[in-house]
Known about the structure:
alpha+beta, 21% strand, 4 helices, Sortase, Chain: A
Amino acid sequence: MRGRPLDTSREATAPPPDHRGERLRGAVRVTGEVLITAGLVLLLFVFYAVYVTDWSSARRQAEAGDRLRARWEQPAPAPAAEGEGFAELYIPRLGGDYRFTVLEGTDARTLAAGPGHYLGTALPGEQGNLAIAGHRIGKGAPFGDLDQLEACDALVVETASEWFVYRVLPMREQVAGWNPGTDPRCAGVAPIGGPYRDVAGRQIVRPEQGEVIYPVPGLPREALPREQQTRLITLTTCHPRFSAEQRLIVHGVLVKQYPKDAAHRELRPPELEES
């Protein structure tokens, strides 16, 4: 008697094993590893940009400052060559020890050693616009906290022969009702008006808006004869942090200057003690 054949219908029709869960777990694992690697690379980049370049820039900045002060000791200091120290910049609001040697020029190598003077813009104390650029992140970040400046804050520039005290202009929202009250820091600071009516203490612009460093910011270079130009200072840096999408601009006006002749050589402007 024949036995019944084995019932294999279930085996024949059973679905294949489902490996989707394993594939999903594998994809998640690979994605996680990629993200971890990318995060480590990003951290290394930030460490390099913020710390390694700072160390290199600090050394080059110190060397530039030493060379500048040595040149000032000469009987007739020669004008700074491109890439050489040009002046000293102090911003008391950013700390009592804030001092950077400003170099002549704004190419990448120069700005890696400190803030740079835009070639062709005014010299300290001259009529026109003394324009200076600086990094906001890494490479010493001389303008890292430029957004903290307020109206009437002092921007002090030292040269071989003089100290020049500029002060930040009123912010755009302050212009209409400008009333500094009894704040002694604001003596000589007010909305300028006339062709300067759109010039405020701080603004954000696109990178291509280079007219912010013109003698009359925002207007063509020849908009106003030199003898009628106000003595301004303009500081520029990238905005926002870790981005070059825009530029942060700070404008100030000259309010005072002190000589560094034999009788005053050791004197420091009292504005340096502000905070």
